[in-house]
Design goal:
The complex is a heterodimer. By secondary structure, chain A is an alpha+beta fold. Chain A contains seven helices and seven strands. Classes of the chains: A alpha+beta, B alpha/beta.
């Protein structure tokens, strides 16, 4: 009897356990199927995303290709400007010069004056072509940054400008300038353009006073170049850095209108800003920002 | 335009530049013994005595080649390359005289062994001064290699 009882209990326990196991297996199977469906969906999504990435990559490669083609076109344009415009200019300059040297005495004064005008026009156009080429070259030139002492750079620039200061009273007030993370050759050009402007526009002054100072502001360096020259009206401040923009008549102050555009392009290539403040007849100040050495370079390049 | 005993070979396609260059050299009495080639092929024919120049001997007295870069048919860099690759012409001084101030032209020229690279100034007075100085320097101041050391007819190929 007892044996039957025990056997009956065992059987019912066993069948219960089997039931539970079966239910668990069923559950697991359902979960596995659900997971498989999810995985399949995720795979599909991934595949779609992969295709999208691939398309974007192809687009990008295409754009890079186009950009390279444009750059190459620009380069060959610059090259042909360099070669093809300079040659006829030299011929005009040359033959008008020979004409005035060899036949000048036989020409009346008006004709001689016209010849001089031709030569002056040629000279001006030569400067323009050279400045434009320079600007184009800076556009595609890589910025080679290194820690650069601005004071020694400035000394070189002032020495180079000696021919323009000879016979003039010029007081240079050069402050202690820091080291900056910049391309020394390009930065020298910025300083040369700004300083040669200060000398140009202080020419009517008995004594030119030109200062170059620096101030730290929010982790960047602000360099200020200030003069006591003829200044300009702030109404035209927005035109200052445009190519060929000039605020003075050529007979008052010579120039091609490319110098400040060049300055702006170089400063922008360094990730900096440039601006000016002035008052008519009361001098001008030009400001630009530079990052100190060892700053995050990515920031400046963006 | 080819002088028999040329001391200078001017390779220049622009007739205006030829005239301005000769005018400048004439003022220093350097224009008498100058040959002019109007494209790269003519320059090579003159230098290596090919084509129209096949019957003449090599130019033994040639002391200077003034070479423009942008030339019809064969460009200046190719003329330079062939000159510097040939035993008979490699010691002749070559001065590039060009409008181009492209960095790669300057670099390429020096890599090929050019002796001097001059950019033609737009301003004629500067141009004249530059051409005169180059002519005087290479013809009167510079010590050329001895005859037969690569420039003459008797050079071993």
């Amino acid at each position: 009897m007892a044996v039957f009882l025990i056997t009956g209990t065992l059987i019912s326990l066993l069948s219960e356990a089997m039931h539970r196991a079966w239910a668990r297996a069923e559950n697991a199977k359902k979960r596995a199927e659900a997971a498989e469906r999810e995985l399949e969906a995720a795979n599909k999504l991934l595949e779609a995303q992969n295709q999208e990435v691939q398309r974007a990559r192809e687009d990008l490669a295409h754009q890079v290709e186009e950009l390279n083609a444009t750059n190459q076109e620009l380069e060959s344009f610059t090259y042909s400007v360099s070669h093809d415009l300079r040659a006829p200019l030299r011929h005009i300059s040359g033959f008008s010069k020979i004409l005035s040297e060899e036949y000048g005495p036989r020409l009346d004064p008006a004709a001689q004056r016209y010849l001089e005008r031709i030569q002056e026009g040629t000279r001006q156009m030569g400067l323009l072509v050279d400045d434009l080429l320079n600007l184009a070259r800076i556009g595609r030139q890589e910025v080679r940054r290194q820690a650069t002492g601005l004071n020694s750079l400035l000394e070189e620039v002032v020495a180079d400008l000696k021919s323009e200061t000879d016979g003039r009273q010029v007081e240079w007030k050069i402050g202690r300038l820091p080291f900056a993370d910049c391309d020394p050759a390009l930065m020298k050009q910025v300083l040369a353009n700004l300083l040669s402007n200060t000398l140009k526009f202080t020419r009517p002054r008995e004594k030119a006073v030109i200062s170059v100072t620096s101030a730290a502001n929010d982790g960047e360096t602000v360099i200020t170049v200030r003069d006591n020259g003829v200044g300009f009206s702030m109404n035209y401040a927005d035109k200052l850095f445009g190519v060929f923009q000039r605020l003075h008549r050529p007979e008052d102050f010579e120039g091609t209108g490319v110098g400040l555009a060049t300055v702006q392009r170089i400063i922008h290539k360094h990730g900096g800003r440039v601006w000016a403040e002035a008052e008519l007849d009361k001098g001008a100040a030009f400001f630009f920002t530079l990052s100190p050495p060892n700053q995050k370079r990515v920031e400046a390049r963006s | 335009m080819m002088a028999q005993m040329a001391e200078i070979l001017l390779v220049e396609d622009s007739p205006d530049d030829v005239e301005l260059t000769l005018h400048s050299l004439r003022q220093e009495n350097l224009a008498n013994q100058i040959a002019v080639a109007r494209d790269g092929k003519e320059a090579l024919d003159f230098l290596f005595r090919r084509g129209a120049h096949a019957q003449q001997g090599l130019a033994p007295g040639l002391k200077l080649v003034l070479l423009d870069l942008k030339l019809p048919k064969v460009d200046g860099l190719e003329v330079l390359r062939q000159m510097k690759n040939d035993e008979r012409t490699k010691t002749i001084p070559v001065v590039i005289l060009t409008s181009s101030r492209e960095e790669r032209d300057v670099v390429d020229s020096y890599k090929l062994g050019v002796n001097s690279y001059i950019q033609k100034p737009v301003d004629f007075e500067q141009f004249r001064e530059t051409v005169k100085r180059a002519g005087l320097y290479w013809l009167l101041i510079n010590q050329p290699p001895p005859q037969g050391a690569g420039t003459g007819t008797d050079a071993k190929p």
